[in-house]
Amino acid sequence: MTDKRETRAWVDIDLDALAHNYHAIRDWTRHNGDGPVKVLGMVKANAYGHGAPVIGKKLQELGAEMLAVACLDEAVQLRQAGVTIPILCLGQTPVELAGDLLEYDVTQTVGDLELGRALSAAAAAAGKELAIHIKLDTGMGRLGFTWREGSQAATVEEIKALCALPSLRAEGMFTHFAAADEDVDYTELQGRRFQEARAVLAQADIHLKNYHCASSAAVLNYPWTHMNLIRPGIAMYGHYPDPASEIRGEPRLVPVMTLKARVTSVRTMPVGTKLGYGCTATLAKESRVAVLSIGYADGLPRSLSNKLQVKLHGTPCPILGRICMDMCMADVTALPQVRVGDVAVIYDKDLNRIAELAGTITDELVCRVSGRVPRVYWENGARIV
Q1: Measured distance CA(170)–CA(212) in Å, rounded
Q2: Are 135 and 144 in contact (CB under 8 A)?
Q3: Catalytic residue among 44, 57, 58, 260
Q4: Residue 135 appears among annotated catalytic residues
């Protein structure tokens, strides 16, 4: 029976695939020189478009030790959904919201001493202690205490001052690789800087519970980056962050999301018919054209116009003309059995290739699926949400 959520466009979310990927990644990274490797599940951006409340609770059930979000609102959503494990906020939180960090027990990233002092004062005023992770900028140039050749001494003093502040509890330190899926030398440079910082801070008697720098590309390609906590993002959702990992296929990942849409019209059009805005497609022969109820407002990139192939009855069918806000058209001439109400698979597996066609990355494709597209969750072959 068709659910009302499945009448236009929707995504099927396979929680069994999520569990498979979690265990595959966990087995891939189980131990290294720092001991057992813990998992910090990335559920920012609505769990990469997969739905943070359900995904967060599932990762907690699977055994993830921590989750990560981009902002306080995302953390609050998880807490209200019943997530109880630690949550790390990777982005900056305004100091005036420190009370909410404390109320919802959110670990805050701190990348400069000024923010640390302000959070310390706010936590002290509330009579509470705020957990933090120290962000180190080893080459991303975005956020964090700068660690570069020649600037280490000043950074050490700042981090020592941060760790000495009252009402803050430093529990971890991390960095972010700028090119782990592209540049081996630069990734290794950042890694050396991070390990140097660990060693120098240890000499200053600063020892933290968690050290992490490996997002998906580093998790799959650089075992030395695993330390004692990893941050798998797109890999957790079943996609390889770079072609080398995909070709190698280890660990074996299974896509969690399948984007689908209904056929709302099928018409036979004569040769020479122009299709869509800007008339960018012209039929070279008489063709059957299906209208699909999905467009760029649903997150399907307009840049895939005249490029993407969707699947109907398991057969690739090319998109014709420009993708509209709410609809697009596909050539189904080779499939006389296509009827109104049929389901088109917009994408599921081959996202690296589709992302290349769109001029973007896999992460963006899954993240941009809009809020008006329902998420339908499946586990053990049954729809659960």
Answers
A1: 14
A2: yes
A3: 44
A4: no
